[in-house]
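Pinned message: reference record for Lrp/AsnC family transcriptional regulator
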Amino acid sequence: MPDLDETDRHLLRLLQRDSTLSTQALAEKTGLSASPAWRRVKRLIDEGYIARQVAIVPPIKAGLHAIAYVQVSLLDHTEASIGKFDSFVRTEDQVIECATITGTSDFLLKIVAPDPEGLEHFIMRRLLALGIVRGTVTNFVLRQTKYTTAMPV
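Predicted structure (tokens):
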């Protein structure tokens, strides 16, 4: 982030903690007046430093009491298989994160469900039913020590 000065970084830190802060509140916390604060935030949005502003819903409040990380290995790495898997991941609401990884697996998924049986159902009846998965390794989350979406800026 070499193009950002300390005020831009401060604005990003504030907005990552609370995206509902008004322009006036942002201005007060950064020592700016409202117009320059608004212009800076608009520039951060226009330049892609702020991709979107969202509400973060705790899984438990949404009735999702089971979280698991699932390592997925595909049968092959053809364009068709990868495309089918990518499409599946994009359309499944229970998959809240997906990353291509190195090592013995191809992907790492973060999956939420109402309970452990819901996770099993998703893995057995949705994921494995794709017909392109060689294997999975599932790690259930017992307790989250830290969870944040904020980037260190």
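Pinned by admin. Summary line: The chain has two domains: 6-46, 59-140.
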